Each structure stands twice: as structure tokens, then as C-alpha cells.
Amino acid sequence: MHRNQIIVFSIATFIIGLMLAVYFNKTPDQPLRETRDMWEIRMQLQEEQNTQQALQNELNELKSIESQYLSRSEKVQIEALSESMENLKEKAGIVTINAPGVIIRLDSMNGNEDDAFDFGLTPELLNRLINELNSYGAKHIAIQNERVTNFTAIRYVGDRIHINQRPIPDLPLTVKVASDDPDRLLSYIEVSQSRDEFAMYNIQFNLEKREDINIPAYDKKIQLDYVEVVEEDKVGGE
Length: 238
What we know:
Number of helices: 7
Helix content: 40-55%
CATH topology of the largest domain: Alpha-Beta Plaits
Strand content: 15-25%
Number of strands: 8
């Protein structure tokens, strides 16, 4: 096998493995409660269905990429690899995004941030909101400028909520949501189950649609447990 072909093949294999790792990596599990209400069960089922569909779409995309690599010239293969790498970076959340979307400002209904925070704002509430936003077509999400990705953990550390291993402040909080169809997303959020549930805990949604929202990049190191770099002399039997 020609040396340049070996390099192209190695990079292509790495990208495919990395894309699979991004999609199969799950957000660390949150502690389970003894009981779940019907909305929790419905949202969990919907999340699993969305995950299954996303994995199927990704598998189809990977098959298409493989076909393109096998049928194109070396120069075109390199160009396709570069394009795939940029798409991968965007999907992994490691690049800054500027896109239209919706800003959700979470605030206390009575103006007392401490009461609202103590009364109900929890990692579970935020995770439910993220799941619902994803089901409504959210492309990229940031909470208080912390990028939400498949690697993001939202949990208590002591008595404070941490996102990406960083503490977030008390209310008010800002959630930025980028979408291909912000009008549709806004309509969904206005009548969402999450909005009603947050209201039960004295937390209100203030919504604003914008044509340009800045979503910061995920700046933590991505740990890939199932990706292995193969030495060049092992590729193609050389």
C-alpha cells in the first residue's frame, strides 16, 4: 500500500472511531430515585428513541463516508477528511458556534434567588430541560456559558451544582440554545413540560429569540477510552 494511502486510511479510520466514541459516550449517570413520575418515564423513553435514531443516522453517515473514501482520488480523500474533521469538531462541541436560537433566562418568580435555588433548582431539573430541548431540535446548548455535550456532567458537588466540573452561580441563570429553526423551538419551549415544572419550583422562564447566539466551545479534555492509535508499521502489514 502506498505511503500516502496508508496515512489517509489511518486518518479516516481514526475519524470514524472518534465519531463513534462521541456518540456512544454517555453523560455520567445521575443517582436514581426510587420512584419516577409518568413524565420522567415518557422523557426517558423519548430520549432513548432519539439516541437510537441519532446512532442510526450516524451509522448511515459513516457508511457514506467510507464509500466516498474508497471511490475518490487521494486528493479528494484528503479534502473529505478535512471536512469530516470539521463536522466532528462541531458535533463534539469543541468549537465555538454562532447561530440563531433562543435564550432562556431562569429566574425566581418572587425575585428571591436564594429561595428559588434552595427550593428546587437541581441537576435533575437541568438535565430534564436539556433532554426536552434536544427533543425539540436544539443543535447546541450552553448553560451559563458552559457548553453542554455528551461528555458534560451536571451534578452536585457539596451543596452547589457543577457543570463540566465548575460551579454555577445562583439564579438567575442563562441557557443559550442554538437551532436551525428558532421560531419553532421558541413555540415548543413556551408550552413545554419543563416550563410548567420549573414554575412549580418557583422558577420562571424568560424567553428571547435571537438571530445570533454565541455558544462557547467545550474546553475540557475529551477522554476516549476506546480509541487506540495504531503504529504505522502495523497498517497494511508494513
